[in-house]
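User: Can you write out an input/output pair for a complex, sequences first and structure second?

Assistant: Here is one pair. Inputs:
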Amino acid sequence: MTGLRNKNFIRIILLKVPVILLFVSVLNDYDFNYSGLKYFSFNFSYILIFYYSLKKTESLGYTYIFIAGLFNDVVIGTPIGLSSLMYLILCVAASYLRNITLRPSLLKDGIFFLLTILIINSLLFLSLKFIFNYELNYFDQIINMVFTFLFYFLFSNLFNFFENYVVRNNNAG
Amino acid sequence: MEPSRDDFVIALRSAFLKKGTQQRFSLLSLIFFSIVFLILGSFNFKIINYVKAGIKEVVYRSSFIVSVPENLLKDSYLTIQNHKKLYKENEKIKSELEILKAKDLLNEFIISENQRLKNIVDDHLVKSDTIIAKVLSDKSSPYLRSIIINKGSKHKVNLGMVVIDGEYLVGKIVEVNYSSSRVLLLSDLNSKIPVIVEPNTVISILSGTGKDYGVIQYSKKYEDIKNESVIYTSGAGSLFKAGIPIGRMNINNLSDEKKVDFFSDFSQLKFVKVVSFKKSENK
């Protein structure tokens, strides 16, 4: 009985891993500054949200994403609601891609992800610069975008592995 | 073209409005909320400010907890970096030590060569006996600057033995009793010892003044004596070993006196060393 309860608990935790990862990533605000890499940053939340909105909609609820966006705004100090808006636009793009795709491929997903983050970051840049009068470094944004795009392929495979082997095996067991 | 446009609209509408099995709100409604938050927030709307303050409370506290693993990672990274730095420093110090060892060997060679040359000119004195003595009395009279020590002939103290405080010269034994002796300090008016002033190697005589300083006398090269020059025993007369530090020149522009400030403070002597020197037997 206890074993069954433990197993159930682990299963719930595994199902909630994407949500936990999302909140950890927005609360932590990884910067890699201590590693001395000047031009290295990527947006893990974008990758996570896009992947799970595209492949496993049920894993990441839109409400969680909305709240995570609010948290992210508080952490990085942007106007409250802006990150939520960007995350949700990312979800719309992922959802649209899911609806129109018949034969999914990682490369197509990656290219669509690149287009989406280009649009999102442009919107973010324009709104912060011209509406909220924030000073932004355009070059840093570009670097962030490039690394986010490149890391999508790596994390996509990692999430695939996690979903197909870890979560499924646990469910089957 | 018409069916493709329809597909686009259907897909987009579905993306915006379709709710998943466990979704409470559609994307469109959440986007609407976000925009409302943004607009009201930019107008400093009271409710939004309360929400913002509430979120901040939660976020700042949880951010600290969530950052623990990253901080651990950061600390580990910095520790590794420090170890790497230490390793490099160690390598550098090792190479410096090798150079110093080589220099030390050279110094040893120079010292032994110096001893050999001194033996040739019959000038090499070595410390033969050292007696540690306690200062019994250091009351200075207007006529005599001296101290009484608790060692005498019983302890093999002889007239003329040198008295040292640490490595600095203090004076010499002028009176020996059975268990006590009197030391004439360098500051006494009667004290006159041969010295050498470095740099420039000026041979001279250091005389006591009856005060807490000495003066340089009987030298032909006064102009070569600079302020802050160091005074050592010259070893002339074989009473003192050459090179015992005594004091430092303190030349005042207002007076012609060549004052010497002693390294040792004679009013603070508690223990002294009584030593004698003899010529080295190694020829």
